[in-house]
Fold this protein.
Amino acid sequence: MAKDLFAKLRRLTPAKARRILKTLFIKVKNSVSGISLGFKAGIAVLLAAAVVVTPVLFYIDLSGENRSENRFDGDAAKVCANIIGEYGSAKTEQADNTGEMYRMAGLSFAREVDFDGNGRSELMLAFRSGSAYQAEVWGYDGGDFVRLYSHAANVAANHPEAGYWISLYRHGSEFYIGELSAEDGKTMDLFSLHGGTFKNARQCEYDPVNDIYAEDGKINTADYETIRLSNLSASKAENLLDSVSAAINSFGAADDGALPVSAKSGEELMAQAYSNVVQDYVSKYGRPQYDSSSRTCFATGLCVADLIDFNGDGVNELLTVYRFNKKISATDDAGNHVLDTEPEYKIEVFRWNGTSAVKAFENEGISEMQDPDDPQRFYILRKNGEKTDICRNTYTYDERTQRIWKGASRISEMDENGAFSASFTAEVNSNYGYNTYRINGERVYRREFNANGYAVPYFCNDEDYDEEQYTVVFLQGGSDRGADIQKRVSQTEKNIDDITSAANV
């Protein structure tokens, strides 16, 4: 019992601990409520009962809480996986021609929230659909995990510069969702969760330009939160992207985001989990193949399956890259908006959490050259002491001219808890030859950028890099890259066999 309790305590988050202690207090209080004593004696008995009963109740509650959390995490992960399958993974996009503003795309927000303060979590998320955003809340209605709330994210018609956002209000242990009135653009209805339904419970006023909430004419800055989904600075967009990845990572098990395995232990269990991921992706996307039937050579199927220790803790993670058909918006001959597909690569990292393989990192798209007509696609790894980091270069171009473009370079590092975050970012914004530069979100002069901004290989086509520190693996390119791509395909074939056979030892 003590060993199990210690294991569960290690997995407690502060939010989960608060919920357990809140429930415990009620149980302890109720356990002595029937005793008729004077006030002082009653307090003494209450404290004594708490000392005696709390360890037992805490263990019982922790066991139940753990089962409840595991169920929520699994259900939340499935919902996120479905949203990602329909609308794409979380990513940032350039939102204007200046290169200063960004927006979220795909699964744009995800957070665990206890809206009604009853100790059971709900999942709040938002995703970009077309040119707008949709906010949803999922939770339990009876025994089913269902959609409890669905509404378009807030937007101020008279102030498009405010972008799209979600408003949250905290009142005691409860959270409310704010919906801005489309009629006057300042009245906000606040919806609370009761009995499985969100109902309009109160109002406030909101100034979208200055991000100010007020109640009865009094400004309230303490109890409101604005979660912006578009018109973000580069640093805020990256922070939001990291928070979405961390939330998905915390949920763990999902259809293809985590594949739990049964009661083995240690290395055999981890090998089985990684083997399950590989076999699942082979069944979905096919084994790695080299295609040279056109002028562009490329790897298809599950192109990469490597065991790499990303955070230097002595335990390998699983790196995968696969080619899939990405859904995109298009226009048919009649001018109608339709869905089309285009080939894309997706890179992911799975980590072992002691019981299952959970997705710790994902990105749609890998690195490319600064030329929209260049077919080369590749991924980049950086050796960082005992750790290995993931690098990526991307470019966006103005719809009217390629002389307005933005280049972004990013190094993502895995911490000791298995979460990836950006340890380095570099940006170039070019407007008809006039360039501005940023490193880690701060604007810098060209001289400093030339010295420090081109750290990642091939950023803005800079080919000078340390081959002992960086590994560049090409998956698509011209015929001159054919031999490299074939070599990668052959290596992945071997890796797949090694990973799957290790699970059968």
